[in-house]
Amino acid sequence: MKSNIRIVVMIVLMVTSCQKTEKNFAYVDGKDIYSQQGELLHLTGVNLGNWLMPEGYMFKLQDCNSPRKIDQAIRELIGNSATTAFWDYFLENYVTEADIKWLSEAGANIIRLPFDYRILSHDDFLGRDMQGYRYLDNAVNWCEKYNIYVLLDMHAAPGGQTGDNIDDSDGYPWLMVDEGMQQEVCDIWKDIAKRYANNSAVIGYNLLNEPVPQYFDADNLKPHLEPLYKRITEAIREVDTNHIIFLGGAVWETDFSVFSEPFDDKLAYTFHKYWMPPEQKEIQQYVDFRDTYDVPILMGESGENEDSWVEQFRVLLDSNDIHWTFWPYKKMDNTRGPMNFDKPAGYDNFIKYAEGDRSSFAGIRALKDSIDGIKPGVITDILNQFVENSRFENCYPNRGYCEALGFK
Questions:
Q1: Could you tell me if 252 and 212 are in contact, meaning their C-beta atoms sit under 8 angstroms apart?
Q2: Cβ-contact 278, 240 below 8 angstroms
């Protein structure tokens, strides 16, 4: 009899073990995320910022700070054809397979990939109709090759989720209240999910980046956020029941009060934290949320700080078993990120023009006359040198920052 019981117990254990190891995708189990092989994951990596969603400050611009504004300034200086050629060069070279290989060898096991929805729609993206998955596919394929997960992050959504430069919007988070825009974001996410439904390198979908800031009528807009998340999730689940869906809080992804109980069994929640003391009290609300609802949490963005601060915050996150992706991977002439590249000679003339008064055609003419070194050919060369400098082989690690992240 005892022998029979042992056999039954062994069979049950074998079946349970097989069920755990035969998953085809990374999966959620309570507060934890496991690999498809059943290994407990601690996700640690970076954001590939500024590639598929250019940001002004990464070009060392302040007021000329959204993709459309940057694109317009360049077109005024070098014309449409040269501008389109510049962006093509930028998109092909700013992040390449070599960057992903380096990150894998450094110890990262995830990259968060910010993108503008416009690259997948007929809406204008850097002066053209992209309508293609080329760059997303490349990134996913490279990550698969080097055993890194990729988290797809819609950094700019239809209508705008923040109403600020980071979503290249029209100055208001119209997505929260515009039915047409909400349907479009559902349709795009459904299309994305259909494309990557069977891809295990994609760990999941970060539905919206930093929605509903404190501006505008935030208290009235916040209640729209979770219902929109549910709606997008329902659209995704029509074609993909496997991948994890990552939900960010309101107010630059810091406010979890917008969430009720989890509405799907494959959810993770994300928060962003910048420029605060790296102390337990700063993250406790997210730890409490995780413990209350038994769900994983990811610190999706932080950084932009000194090496010592980054190390203290990273250690704090690790000690709380919080997954993390620091922002960003590379920057020009800046040590606040793992990778650095040089600013081209003459680049300050481009900055001076882009930040100048271009509110009228007379102002544009006067500005061009007042700045030396902004002839079309010269600016074209400077911008192309920006891209050339950003290529992996011309970048160099910020060793202190890398050590702060625990990278090799």
A1: no
A2: no
Whole-number Å distance between alpha carbons of 316 and 309 = 11
In the chain, where the domains are located? 42-67+102-340
| Secondary structure in 3-state letters for 39-53 | CECCCEEEECCCCEC
Question: Which pLDDT belongs to residue 18?
Answer: 41
| Cα maximum dimension of the chain | 97
pLDDT in tens, 274-306: 999 999 999 999 999 999 999 999 999 999 999
Q: What is the DSSP letter of 327?
A: B
Neighbours of 392 (CB within 10 A): 18
CATH number for 42-67+102-340 (one of 3.20.20.80, 3.90.45.10, 3.50.30.60, 3.20.20.140): it is: 3.20.20.80
Return the DSSP state at 343. Answer: P
Question: For 325-359, how does the pLDDT look when each residue is reduced to its tens digit (9 = 90+)?
Answer: 999 999 999 999 999 999 999 999 999 999 999 99
Which residues make beta-bridge pairs with 326?
A: 46
Three-state DSSP at 330 gives strand
Give me 166's structure tokens: 């980071």
Q: Strand 124-125 to strand 323-326: parallel, antiparallel, or no bridges (unpaired)?
A: unpaired
Mean pLDDT by 10-residue block, N- to C-terminus, for the chain (408 residues)? 46 42 84 97 98 96 95 97 96 98 98 97 87 92 98 97 93 96 98 97 98 91 97 98 97 97 98 97 98 98 97 98 98 96 97 96 94 93 98 97 96
Q: What are the phi and psi torsion angles at 14 (to 5°)?
A: -65, -45
Q: How far apart are CA 156 and CA 116, in angstroms?
A: 5
Element (H, E) at 269: strand 267-272
Can you tell me the distance from the alpha carbon of 60 to that of 347, in angstroms, rounded to the nearest whole number? 10
DSSP, residue by residue, 195-249: HHTT-TTEEEEE--SS-S-SSTTHHHHGGGHHHHHHHHHHHHHTT-SSSEEEEE-
SS3 287: helix
Cβ proximity of 36 and 19 under 8 Å = no
Task: Please tell me the predicted confidence (pLDDT) of residue 218.
Answer: 87
Give the pTM: 0.93
Separation between Cα atoms, residue 41 and residue 322, nearest integer Å: 10
